[in-house]
């Protein structure tokens, strides 16, 4: 299978929109010399053109699908989305979900977005949630979830002509309504092209609809040629006419026959899978040898993106995964998300050169990462060495074990947990289901099964000959000193050092972690005094600060990480009812939420939260021995 990465997709970060505000407070695009919404009443126009002429309140009452999907050209200020969300809240059945997909070539800066939306006080609450979730200006898809996944937004940043080929293969026959927006065709002709109309047609379900503010002849003809029945209607306000219509097509969608999914595992991957499924109304049977008893069981874990000097598939994936994880933890588990920021010290010349390349490449938005001087490093915390660094302002840390337990608890009655000593094997049954066999002799039938068992995943999937490697890591917990207790953020060097947390009444930090490819499979959880010494020595050597010599180790914990040869997760379906989510390495809490959404979206035939070229990069089949 070819894994050629789309070079257009790896272009530099999209340019943020340049806007001014006119006398009425309406944002105006400098690029297109056009307003973002109607001068008199932008919200009324959005409701009239897009909501009314797609007949939304009626259609999500009568739709046969659990999820109603809206797609849009031109996110802009997000006004159409907020109007749609508000109407959905007020008129949709309680069991219906809204999936909103939008493309934007020039993302607004958060400050401009906030100013623009301040003109609509009745949307203030929803706008606040959007602003908190709003991603960094990075090319690709950014999935945001609201109302515990009842409302999902996939925001695709970049040129629509480059992004559509990355979205469309996974979005055939999924869209119920299109909002054809964007700046006027005479001011932005490059967007209103036949390939956009063709993509609208192929992504629509049967009886899918569209609406647009324009009545331009080229737009009408392009939509008709793509297969839409086009109707002219009275335009909003001073506009004479607008267009709306629908498409008839044969587009049967085979929904999953199973309403229940069995998951083998107990860490962050399993928890995120259970959450993504139960929030969609599916029941989950989790078979586990222990909750967060592997690599997900440490006291503290950093969440930040893995970046390269060039925008590689690896860094592109982690940009998308990080933005999603941050938003997921922040919105669903705010008490466990610590948005402290993360700093990566340039503790030697090689690190400094590598960081300079990352900072100067033009690939990453400064809300994601920025280079700081040695002086700025000490301004963040004067106990740090005078070293230049990379600073990740929107990153932070979580308490892994508590987070996994809390996510599973929030799945409610749709989650059933069965504890076993070990899962020994899985085998296909005569009925085409999967039989999960435990060491105590119990067998469990699974119509649909996902294996997310961390370091034990590949042995359970032995017939597929998937090649991974387990790596032992040991983390050291140290008692906080008077100086270290004031550490305000996660500090990364060759290891990492976390801010102090309350540990049974005392303050401790995590210092980690060793990385051992060779270890005893029987005794890997046994604490090694040499690893404790290594963790402390690395901290002392890389930071070279007196306070690091004063820290006392109080406990250690060892576990296995499962890694892949290309450092990307293994996420996908081996058969139509056997999925795999593994290979998360040491960044599972950054990658697991997005991978879970991807796996569930694939199973349900929903629009997917990642570019098609990246989805292919994650397929577990790439790791089979024959392709190694």
UniProtKB/TrEMBL annotation:
Residues 1-248 are annotated as: tRNA (mnm(5)s(2)U34)-methyltransferase. Pfam families: DAO, Methyltransf_30. Residues 122-246 form the MnmC-like methyltransferase domain. GO terms for cellular component: cytoplasm. Its main location: cytoplasm. It is found in: Cytoplasm. This is tRNA 5-methylaminomethyl-2-thiouridine biosynthesis bifunctional protein MnmC. It comes from Pseudidiomarina maritima. The lineage of its organism: Bacteria, Pseudomonadati, Pseudomonadota, Gammaproteobacteria, Alteromonadales.
């Amino acid at each position: 299978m070819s894994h050629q990465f789309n070079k257009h997709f790896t272009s530099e970060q999209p340019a943020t929109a340049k806007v001014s505000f006119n006398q009425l407070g309406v944002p105006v695009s400098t690029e297109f010399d056009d307003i973002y919404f109607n001068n008199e009443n932008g919200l009324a126009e959005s409701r009239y053109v897009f909501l009314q002429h797609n007949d939304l309140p009626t259609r999500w009452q009568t739709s046969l699908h659990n999820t109603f999907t809206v797609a849009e050209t031109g996110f802009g200020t997000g006004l159409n989305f907020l109007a749609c969300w508000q109407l959905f809240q007020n008129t949709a059945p309680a069991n219906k979900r809204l999936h909103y997909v939008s493309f934007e070539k020039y993302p607004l800066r958060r400050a401009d977005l906030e100013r623009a939306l301040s003109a609509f006080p009745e949307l203030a609450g929803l706008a606040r949630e959007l602003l908190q979730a709003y991603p960094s200006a990075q090319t690709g898809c950014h999935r945001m979830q609201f109302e515990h996944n009842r409302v999902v937004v996939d925001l695709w940043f970049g040129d629509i002509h480059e992004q559509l080929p990355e979205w469309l293969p996974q979005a055939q026959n999924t869209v119920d309504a299109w909002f054809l927006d964007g700046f006027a065709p005479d001011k932005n002709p490059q967007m209103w092209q036949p390939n956009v109309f063709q993509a609208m047609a192929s992504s629509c379900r049967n009886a899918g609809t569209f609406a647009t503010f324009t009545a331009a002849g080229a737009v009408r003809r392009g939509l008709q040629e793509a297969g839409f029945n086009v109707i002219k209607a009275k335009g909003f306000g001073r506009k004479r006419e607008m267009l709306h219509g629908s498409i008839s097509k044969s587009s049967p969608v085979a929904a999953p026959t199973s309403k229940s999914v069995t998951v083998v595992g107990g860490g962050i991957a399993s928890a995120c899978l259970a959450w993504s499924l139960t929030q969609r109304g599916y029941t989950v049977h989790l078979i586990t040898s222990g909750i967060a008893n592997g690599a997900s069981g440490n006291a503290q874990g950093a969440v930040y993106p893995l970046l390269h000097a060039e925008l590689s598939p690896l860094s592109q994936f982690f940009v998308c995964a990080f933005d999603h994880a941050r938003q997921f933890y922040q919105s669903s588990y705010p008490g466990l998300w610590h948005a402290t920021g993360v700093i990566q010290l340039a503790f030697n010349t090689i690190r400094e050169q590598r960081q300079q390349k990352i900072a100067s490449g033009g690939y990453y938005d400064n809300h994601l990462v920025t280079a700081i001087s040695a002086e700025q490093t000490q301004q963040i915390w004067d106990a740090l060495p005078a070293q230049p660094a990379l600073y990740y302002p929107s990153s932070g840390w979580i308490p892994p074990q508590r987070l996994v337990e809390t996510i599973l608890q929030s799945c409610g009655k749709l989650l059933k947990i069965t504890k076993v000593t070990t899962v020994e094997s899985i085998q296909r049954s005569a009925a085409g289901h999967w039989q999960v066999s435990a060491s105590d002799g119990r067998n469990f039938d699974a119509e649909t099964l996902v294996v997310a068992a961390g370091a034990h995943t590949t042995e359970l999937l032995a017939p597929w000959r998937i090649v991974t490697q387990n790596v032992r890591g040991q983390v050291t917990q140290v008692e906080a000193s008077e100086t270290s207790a004031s550490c305000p953020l996660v500090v990364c060097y060759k290891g990492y050092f976390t801010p102090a947390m309350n540990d049974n009444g005392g303050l401790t930090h995590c210092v980690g972690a060793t990385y051992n490819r060779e270890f005893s499979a029987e005794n890997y959880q046994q604490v090694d005094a040499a690893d404790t010494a290594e963790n402390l020595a690395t901290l002392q050597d890389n930071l070279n600060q007196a306070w690091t010599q004063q820290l006392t180790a109080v406990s250690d914990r060892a576990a296995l990480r499962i890694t892949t040869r290309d450092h990307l997760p293994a996420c996908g379906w081996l058969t139509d009812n056997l999925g795999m989510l593994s290979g998360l390495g040491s960044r599972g809490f950054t990658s697991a939420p997005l991978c879970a959404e991807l796996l569930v979206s694939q199973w349900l035939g929903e629009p997917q939260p990642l570019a098609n070229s990246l989805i292919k990069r994650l397929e577990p089949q790439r790791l089979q021995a024959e392709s190694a």
